[in-house]
Amino acid sequence: MTELVKILAVALVTVFAHMFVKQTKPEIAILISIVGSVIIIIMAVDILDTVISSFYKIFDTTGVDATLLKPLLKIVAIGYIAEFGANICLDAGASSVADKILFSAKLIILVVALPIVTTVIDMVVALL
User: Fold this and answer.
1) For 40, how many CA atoms within 13 A lie in the half-sphere containing its CB?
2) Tens-digit pLDDT profile for residues 28-63
3) What is the rounded CA–CA span in Å between residue 10 and residue 82?
4) What angle do CA 85, 47, 62 make, to 5 degrees?
5) Cβ(78)–Cβ(112) under 8 Å?
6) Could you write out the DSSP letters of every residue in 45-93?
7) What's the rounded Cα separation, in Å, for the pair 12 and 19?
8) Going by C-beta distance under 8 Å and a sequence separation of 6 or more, which residues neighbour residue 60?
9) Residue 23 DSSP SS3
10) How confident is the model at residue 104 (pLDDT cuts 50, 70, 90)?
11) Dihedral angle at the C-alpha atoms of 53, 109, 93, 10, nearest 10 degrees?
12) pLDDT surpassing 80 at residue 67
């Protein structure tokens, strides 16, 4: 809960600084938003350790091959990074670039997911 309060505090300071500076220096306002967003992401990375250890416990409990965790985490990371980049583009008024980022990310996710799909298919075939 305290992590969320800290993140919210950084977000509010970022938003108010962005709004204040946007009137006089719009190009600096975008940089303020980017820097604030990066700080928030760095703060959230600490939470990621808990998530990863929970996934390892789930994989150990179920007997699923833990090597599938790496592509799964890559997929999640690609999604978040793409959304972050697309939102920066949207803030800057480049919605068409944001669309291309999201489209490309979906293709990359598809490629990264292939080992997971292959493993699931192998498991289903083994059950038959």
Assistant:
1) 19
2) 988 998 899 889 988 888 788 788 888 888 878 887
3) 22
4) 105
5) yes
6) HHHHHHHHHHHHHHHHHHT--GGGHHHHHHHHHHHHHHHHHHHHHHHTT
7) 11
8) 66
9) coil
10) very high
11) 0
12) no
Two structure tokens written together for 52: 């990863």
Measured CA to CA, the distance from residue 108 to residue 102 in angstroms comes to 10
State yes or no: pLDDT of 96 exceeds 90: yes
Distances (CA, A) of 39 to 9, 14, 74, 81: 11, 10, 21, 14
Residue tagged 């990375």 (tokens): 45
Task: Provide the token pair at 123.
Answer: 């498991």
